[in-house]
Amino acid sequence: MSKLLLTLETIHKAFGGKPVIDNVSLSLHQGEITTLIGPNGAGKSTLAKIILGLIKPDSGLRKTNPDIRIGYMPQKITIDPTLPISTLRFLQLANASQTACHEVLKSMDIGHLAKTPIQNLSGGELQRALLARAILRKPNLLVLDEPVQGVDINGQNALYQMINSLAKSLNCAVLMVSHDLHLVMSATDQVICLNRHICCQGHPEQVTQDPAFIDIFGHTTAIYSHHHDHDHNLHGEILDETTHAHRDDCDHD
Amino acid sequence: MPTETTVIMTDFLVYALLAGLGVALVAGPLGCFVVWRRMAYFGDTLAHSALLGVSLGVLLDINLNITVIAIPLMMAMGLVFLEQRGFLSLDTLLGILSHSALAAGLVVISLLPDVRVDLMSLLFGDLLAVTKSDLWVIYSVSAAVMGLLALLWKQLINITVDSELAAVEGTNVALVSTALMLITALVIALAMKVVGVLLITALLIIPAATARRVSKTPEQMAIAASIIAMLTVVMGLAMSWNLDTPAGPSVVISASFLFCLSLLYRRQLS
């Protein structure tokens, strides 16, 4: 049995009286990849921050293994342009040696950007730099908040491959937040669909048999098919919130 | 042979110069954080509450050194409290607190029975009235601030880059940002003597902004800002001495002049 790293038990969180996380329980095991999906405003980032310990829940328990080392890749960071800081220095803030930083930058294919001011990196380069900082601490739990946001499908495959091989080499648990409701990384062990409460969870379907799918998406993306107990509009916002109620096929109580 | 008058004149000029240099030394690195963390308006708010601190101290007969630090710190805590309630933007809250504090300070001063407070020296500084005991206060507080900054430097840079990443990696963000707030209140209380409450933010941010143009690391920028701030004190006092202009505004105008000069400097693309 792989090591249990973190559990959440019946977590509730509200902001300004509005519930954002409602009765969520989950556990993260070493070596397992979990993808957290859900529509906009479903509380994915809030749940990720509760897992990280950045937000205290109103009620419920967060238990961590004493050996836990968390690496965190935020969705985005904004560093004021007046702060003169190179990409290398940014990585060194994770308490890592210069050699270790150079190595990890090279492994991310951005070794040539070590001296570049971090504010000058492109979106994709910055994501790699953030991932580099997250893994510098040799974490056993890697939390990635929308790591493929704004990256095209090829870049997405490359990033998924990188995350997958990192997860293997570090033997760490991965929690990945994704805004995409249907396409998740094929290596995912567990998909959790969040809509304030956990509305469903399971394994993504492998679709590698279908050559047309592989043509379009490559091998690293899989379709997660699931039935929502709510509807979305084109922006991923939940429609008709007032009539939303738990149905029988919701696998929680 | 120097007359008695010139001896006294040079004496207070030396005191003024030493006081200004002592404050400029710490205004440089702290000003960098004010610029990096976009705290200019926050600095203004603390400065205006320092004025309220002085007037309340005189009114209630409490040691001014205490009220001039305590009132800005209370204001900062009130700000954190209101910000967490989240019904107004930080910008608006700062505007409300900053100007309320300034107005309250001015009203309280007007209520004092006899004129025991020189309003102009509070608003624009009174560098030329610095005494030997002021110098002791300035240099001990400066030393304490430098010590704190050096001790917390890495954590301060870390929370400035991204406080959530820093928190996940084990930095006590609340403690470090509270320390920065305390340091800011201390430096503002010192800088009041040099440039007065209305111009404190200028002494913090103009040298830092000038230093940005010649720096490649946070440390370079902090040291450069210190040197530039000290240079502007020397220039400002020289100007004040020769043209008989008020010392505080002269220091700030020297800082602005150096900033304009720095705009002419073209950085080589690396």
Description:
The complex is a heterodimer of chains A (253) and B (270). Chain A has 253 residues and is α/β, with parallel strands linked by helices. Chain A folds into two domains: 4-69 and 139-243, 3-Layer(aba) Sandwich (Rossmann fold), CATH 3.40.50; 77-138, no CATH class. Helices cover 25% and strands 28% of the residues of chain A. Chain A has a six-stranded mixed sheet, with helices on both faces. In chain A, strand 12 and strand 13 form a beta hairpin. Chain A is globular and about 45 Å long. Chain B is an all-alpha fold and 270 residues long. Chain B has a single domain (4-264), classed as Orthogonal Bundle (ABC transporter involved in vitamin B12 uptake, BtuC). Chain B is built from eleven helices and no strands. The mean pLDDT of chain B is 89. The chains are: A alpha/beta (253), B mainly alpha (270).
Descriptive terms for the model:
heterodimer; A: 253 residues; alpha/beta; Rossmann fold; 2 domains; six-stranded mixed sheet; three-stranded antiparallel sheet; 6 helices; disordered C terminus; B: 270 residues; mainly alpha; ABC transporter involved in vitamin B12 uptake, BtuC; 81% helix; globular
Detail the topology: elements first, then pairings.
The complex is a heterodimer of chains A (253) and B (270).
Chain A: E1 4-15, E2 18-29, E3 33-37, H1 44-52, E4 59-64, E5 70-73, H2 87-92, H3 98-107, H4 123-136, E6 141-145, H5 153-170, E7 173-178, E8 183-185, E9 190-195, E10 197-202, H6 211-217, E11 221-223, E12 231-232, E13 238-239
Parallel strand pairs in A: 3-7, 3-9, 5-6, 6-7
Antiparallel strand pairs in A: 1-2, 1-4, 8-11, 9-10, 12-13
Helix pairs in contact in A: 3-4
Chain B: H1 4-36, H2 40-60, H3 64-85, H4 90-111, H5 119-124, H6 132-161, H7 163-168, H8 173-195, H9 200-212, H10 218-243, H11 247-264
